[in-house]
Design a protein that fits this description.
Helices cover 33% and strands 22% of the residues. It is built from twelve helices and 19 strands. 31% of the residues are buried.
C-alpha cells in the first residue's frame, strides 16, 4: 500500500519551512518513526518521521524547497523491511533515479551543480547523513570530502563546521599537471645561455596559493536572527551601561557546596542560577526593566520568564525558563542544562523559544571580556555576562587579587531611564557580591 508523507502541521507563528535534507532516497528501506527528512524553520529544525515500515518509492520535492503544512513530500510503499534496500525497487532504473535525485539534492543544497563524480557527497548520503548538520553536510559535499577522515570535536563524536574548515585549511594545494612538450635538441651553447638568462631561484616570486570563495545561502535561522537584530536596532532606542562584580563570595559559596549539591540534585552547580536569581531580584525592584512597549502603552509583566541565550552550530537561540522566580537553584540549573543540550542536538521546540520577559547572555564562555548585547525584542533589556578574570582591586586600602567580571545591560531608553538601568545593574552586582542575601530574600 502506498502512503503519502506530508509536511506536519506547523505552529501558528510559522508560515512555511525549508526542506534542507533528505535522509533517504528512492529505493531505500525505512522503518517506522525513522527520520525521512529535516525541515528548517525560522527557529528550529523539525523531523519528518515515517509512519510505517516500507520502502521509499518517490521524493516529490528537492532539497532547498520551501514547503507548507500538508504538502506532499514523498511516497513510501508500506511493507516489511529486511535490508537497507528492497529487491523489488533496487533495479537499475531505480538506482539511476536515486543517483539523479541525490545529484539534484546536492546541487540545490550547495547552491551549485554537483560534479559528475563526487565520492565524498555519495558517502555522506549513504552513511553519515543522519549525523551531520545541514551546514556541515553542505560543506562536505561541496568539497567532495570523506567525513570519516575528518577528526570530529562535537558532542558524541559529531562533526562540526569548524572541524571541516580546519581540515580544509590543512590540505595541501595541488599544482596543475605539467603539460608535456616536444623534445627539441638545443644548438651548442644554448643551454649555457639560457641558464645565464634565468634569474637565480631565490629571486623568483613565490607561487600564489589558492584564493577560493564559497557562496552559501543563509539558513532560515541565521536570516531570522539578522532580521530581528536589525529590527531591534531600528525600532528601539538602545543604550548600554556597564559595571563590574567581584565574584569572590559567589565562588566561595559555589565551591563549598558544589559536591553536595551535585550529589543531592544530580546536576552541577554553575554560575547561571546565581545570575538568574540575582536578575529576578533586581527586576522585582525595577519592574520597568521587565516590561515591554506595546504601541503607546507600557506593558508591565508580573511574571518572570527568563530567556537564556544558547549558541549552536545553526546560530544563537534563546530558550525561556518560565516562572523562573518560583524555581530553586537546582531546578534552574537542570532546566538551563537541558535546554542547552536539546538546543545543540536540534530537539528544541517552538514552545521552548516563545515569549520571555528578560534575557541573559553569556559571552564569557567564549572569552569575551566586554560587549554590548542587543535586546531580544519585544523585551526591553538584556544582561550580558563576560569572562571571569583575576584583576588587582583596591579593597579597604589594600591591593588584592579578585575574580572580576564586567556586566553589561543594554536597555530600551524609550521606557527605561539611565538611572533605573544603572540601579538595576548595581542591584545585580550587590546580590552576587553577597549571595546570602538571595537565599534569605533580603
Amino acid at each position: 500500500m502506498s502512503t503519502e508523507i506530508r509536511v506536519p502541521q506547523l505552529p501558528e507563528s510559522i508560515a512555511d519551512a525549508t526542506l534542507v535534507t533528505w535522509h533517504k532516497q528512492p529505493g531505500d528501506a525505512i522503518r517506522r518513526d525513522e527520520n525521512l527528512a529535516d525541515l528548517e524553520t525560522d527557529k528550529v529544525v523539525l523531523e519528518v518521521p515515517a509512519p510505517a515500515n516500507g520502502v521509499v518509492r518517490e521524493l516529490r520535492v528537492k532539497s532547498g524547497t520551501v514547503v507548507k503544512s500538508g504538502q506532499v513530500l514523498a511516497v513510501i510503499e508500506e511493507g516489511a523491511v529486511d535490508g537497507k534496500r528492497a529487491a523489488a525497487t533496487a533495479s537499475a532504473p531505480a538506482s539511476a533515479a536515486s543517483a539523479a535525485a541525490a545529484a539534484v539534492n546536492a546541487g540545490a543544497a550547495g547552491g551549485v551543480q554537483a560534479p559528475k563524480s563526487a565520492p565524498g557527497a555519495a558517502k555522506v548520503a549513504a552513511t553519515d547523513a543522519g549525523r551531520l548538520s545541514p551546514s556541515v553536510r553542505r560543506l562536505v559535499e561541496e568539497n567532495q570530502l570523506d567525513p570519516g577522515r575528518i577528526p570530529a570535536s562535537g558532542r558524541d563524536g559529531r562533526l562540526t563546521k569548524s572541524d571541516v574548515v580546519d581540515y580544509l585549511g590543512r590540505q595541501p594545494v595541488e599544482a596543475p599537471p605539467a603539460q608535456s612538450a616536444p623534445s627539441v635538441t638545443p644548438p651548442p651553447g644554448a643551454a649555457a645561455a639560457a641558464a645565464l638568462a634565468r634569474p637565480p631561484p631565490e629571486s623568483r616570486p613565490p607561487a600564489l596559493g589558492a584564493r577560493a570563495e564559497q557562496r552559501v545561502p543563509m539558513t532560515r535561522l541565521r536570516a531570522r536572527i539578522a532580521q530581528r537584530l536589525i529590527e531591534a536596532q531600528s525600532t528601539q532606542a538602545l543604550l548600554t551601561t556597564f559595571n563590574e562584580v567581584d565574584l569572590t563570595a559567589t565562588q566561595e559559596l559555589r565551591a563549598r557546596y558544589r559536591e553536595r549539591f551535585e550529589k543531592e540534585h544530580g546536576v552541577k552547580l554553575g554560575f547561571m542560577s546565581f545570575f538568574v536569581r540575582a536578575a529576578i531580584d533586581a527586576l522585582k525592584k525595577f519592574p520597568v526593566v521587565n516590561a515591554s512597549v506595546d504601541g503607546n502603552d507600557i506593558l508591565y509583566h508580573e511574571y518572570y520568564d527568563i530567556g537564556v541565550a544558547v549558541s549552536t552550530e545553526r546560530g544563537l537561540i534563546v530558550p525561556v525558563v518560565r516562572d523562573a522566580d518560583s524555581k530553586s537553584f537546582a531546578m534552574l540549573e537542570k532546566q538551563v542544562a537541558d535546554y542547552a543540550r536539546r538546543a545543540r542536538e536540534g530537539s528544541i521546540t517552538i514552545e521552548d523559544l516563545t515569549g520571555g520577559t528578560f534575557t541573559i547572555t553569556n559571552g564569557g564562555v567564549f572569552g569575551s571580556l566586554m560587549s554590548t548585547p542587543i535586546v531580544n525584542a519585544p523585551q526591553s533589556a538584556i544582561l550580558g555576562m563576560h569572562k571571569i578574570q583575576d584583576r588587582p582591586m583596591v579593597i579597604n586600602g589594600q591591593i588584592v587579587v579578585r575574580p572580576m567580571m564586567y556586566l553589561a545591560v543594554t536597555y530600551d531608553h524609550r521606557i527605561i531611564d539611565g538611572r533605573e538601568a544603572v540601579q538595576f545593574l548595581v542591584a545585580i552586582k550587590e546580590a552576587l557580591e553577597d549571595p546570602g542575601r538571595m537565599l534569605l530574600g533580603i
